[in-house]
Design a protein that fits this description.
globular, binds fe (ii) ion, alpha/beta, 12 helices, about 425 residues, TIM Barrel, Urease, subunit C, domain 1
């Protein structure tokens, strides 16, 4: 049917609106009271009663092939990226398609319940049977009823580190992945890292795919591949289809060099995706005290006009043992970790969660406007600040006019000396 009406929803800007959806598209977005619930069937109406309504959330960076494997075969005790890669290497030795599908499907359903309707996942192409790629391409079809899934071919162990890896990467692209990745800081030498960037730029151009690279995900200030990617993207005119994920070494660059790289990113149009859950525990692992936060420079990137998306990266895997596939958790970590606890930062965080992630994903007709997709999320919260503060339950998730998920908020009571009182975490 794909028709639905949500009444009395409060937008991030603060207005109270009615949203009428027909044929999967927002036909009318009007001040509350001007909508016409009577023209919609009773089971296609929802009264938000002044609660927050936003466009659907987007996950721009996750590894669904590794999700749910935390502790198997071992936990990452050092908390380093390197040990995470070692643990994953041991796990994937006998990985199967069904195993990936089981774990990934569960995580996708968590995402859907949290209001996410688009997910970009990386698929490890250095696993010789390409089981992870096969599984995630199959997953793309199986979960198409709830999310749009993009699969990035991701050479976890490097491209030039083994003579088979470039062929495996190309094979993955020919199998039908949506985007191409690399990990230049994990190649053996600086020169190989530069070559890996150029190799995937060539591949992306040849097969007409966007690029999304894990890049400079280290505390080493000598890791300088973001400049190579931005320069290549600029020369080739593909910046608007290119994403630099992580870029944590930027935290440790001297200011003069960081300024150069950020300016180059802005000029090239390359977007950045920050992944605070993972990088809050991975970065600084080799430091004594003072221990660096090791996070990319969100404020300076924003000042330069660079698009900065916000991802979760890992859910229950060797790099980040925690998580429940909630973008609001990732934003909550970021606001602490990147000193974004100011009042103006609330709108910046929501901008990252919605419009910036949509730009990274390449989503069109996105956002609460007439003529756009009839997709939205209602939160058990009066506004964006409180939704972040409580990581509020998503009471309704609509995708093109159809219900994707519902959540009933839980209740709590405190047992006082003079009786019980209901707890309301809203202020
Ligand atoms: Fe990642």
């Amino acid at each position: 049917m794909s028709e639905y009406i949500v009444t009395r929803g409060r937008t991030l800007a603060g207005g109270i609106v009615d949203v009428e959806i027909e044929d999967g598209t927002i036909r009318r977005l009007v001040p509350a009271g001007e909508g016409d619930p009577s023209s919609f069937p009773a089971d296609r109406r929802y009264d938000a009663d002044g609660r927050l309504v936003t466009p659907p959330l987007i996950e721009p960076h996750v590894h669904l092939d590794a999700t749910g494997t935390a502790g198997d075969p071992t936990w990452n005790e050092s908390g380093t990226l390197a040990e995470g890669i070692e643990v994953w290497a041991a796990y994937k030795e006998d990985i199967t398609v069904e195993d990936v599908l089981d774990r990934a499907t569960r995580t996708v359903e968590w995402y859907a319940a949290n209001g996410v309707t688009r997910i970009r996942t990386h698929a490890d192409t250095t696993e010789p049977s390409l089981t992870t790629v096969e599984a995630l391409l199959e997953l793309r079809e199986r979960v198409a009823d709830v999310v749009d899934l993009q699969v990035v071919a991701f050479p976890q162990d490097g491209i030039l580190t083994d003579e088979s890896h470039e062929d495996l990467l190309r094979e993955a692209v020919e199998m039908g992945v949506d985007a191409v990745g690399a990990i230049p800081h994990n190649e053996h030498t600086r020169e190989d890292g530069v070559e890996s960037v150029r190799t995937v730029c060539d591949l992306a151009e040849r097969y007409d795919r966007p690029l999304d690279l894990h890049i400079d995900e280290t505390d080493d200030p000598g890791s300088r591949f973001t400049e190579v990617l931005a320069s290549e993207a600029l020369k080739r005119g593909i910046g608007d289809r290119t994403t630099a994920s992580h870029a944590t070494a930027m935290h440790s660059y001297n200011n003069a060099y960081a300024d150069k790289v950020i300016s180059l990113l802005a000029e090239s149009g390359v977007g950045v995706v920050t992944n605070p859950p993972d990088n809050s525990v991975l970065q600084g692992s080799y430091d004594d005290y003072p221990r660096r936060r090791g996070h990319t420079r969100i404020d300076e990137l924003h000042e330069a006009g660079v698009t900065v998306g916000l991802g979760h990266d890992s859910v229950l895997d060797p790099w980040y043992h925690y998580g429940q596939a909630d973008p609001l958790d990732a934003a909550f970590v970021l606001l602490h970790y990147a000193h974004m606890a100011g009042r103006d930062d609330v709108s910046t965080l929501w901008e990252m969660l919605t419009a910036a992630n949509a730009e990274v994903f390449g989503a069109s007709e996105y956002g609460l406007r007439e003529g756009n997709e009839g997709s939205l999320v209602v939160y058990d919260s009066p506004d964006g600040f409180n939704a972040l503060r409580t990581r509020a339950p998503r009471t309704l998730v609509l995708r093109e006019g159809d219900v994707v998920a519902r959540t009933e908020p839980s209740s709590a009571t405190v047992h006082r000396a003079d009786g019980t009182s209901a707890v309301d975490f809203h202020r």
